[in-house]
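Below is a complete specimen:
___
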Amino acid sequence: MGNNKEGNLPVSKGPPPRPPRQLGGPLLPLLLDDELTSCIVMQEFSRVSNTPVDELGDQVKSFRSKVARAFQVSHPYVDESVSDEYFFDLTCYSIWRVASVRIQDFSKRDLFVRNVGRKLLDEVIKLGLVPSKDINTLQSGGGGLTNTLPAVIGILEVFRSSGFCTKFQLGDKNDELRTGMRAFDELDDEELRGGGSIDCLVSVLDASTLGGSLQINGEGSRFYPDFVGPVLSAIWERIGRVSISYESYFVDPVYRPNPKVSCDCGFAILLLYHLTCFCRQRTSSLTKCCTSTLSRVARKKGDLADYSFL
């Protein structure tokens, strides 16, 4: 009578990882290069840590070789080149781990990341990767948030076309009147000029830094690879008299009844940026954005299903 005793059953295997994407285009050498010497990340790392870039490159390569075998289990790269998505991810993970040792001061860590975004934006503009008509407002240093939308979408498209991510969305998909080129309006500009704050949600799917970011986050640190957030922050800084704070979150858009079984494929995870602009005329210090709303997103099945635009 009753069910047969089965004893302990082995854990079900998750689906195999998908093949890595190929990164390329003029954006890639700005982000990373195989020699780890000329890219913006290593140059800024060297400047902030006051350490020769060659020495840092050797340390990153040494650390990368130690963790590569374990990293490759869930991120099987094909080529040992930063043009391989998973090897790019592994390299970013290694850089930020070495940086966490070399840059102990949290304010310098913030400076390092933000300067990477600022210099990356400068180079994108210099190389003409975004149409000139979209960056005229940025170069003039004036205008409001609405005038920055073409540049923001242009930058996100540069990331997508380079293979860094597969899709992106500016604004909340559940509010069709506040997405894309309509993410901001004249009321937002007026609010900002009056000393208020403006929030914006940016979703990036399958970022090439995802694996390393999740690994570092799981190790208990918030200092993990990020390129999109700092670049967007650099764009909005050019409005003038504003300060930008942002947070990134990892949300799986697919509801999984048993995430411990299925999350091995965890590549359908969104990076959500919550950016807030504060007018310096009335706000003298950075204010952390409220995380309660997005924290609830990660716990509610209904909210997660809302990110089915992908």
The chain has 13 helices and five strands. The first strand starts at residue 167 and ends at 170. Residues 262-269, 281-310 have pLDDT under 50 and may be disordered. Residues 28-305 form one domain.
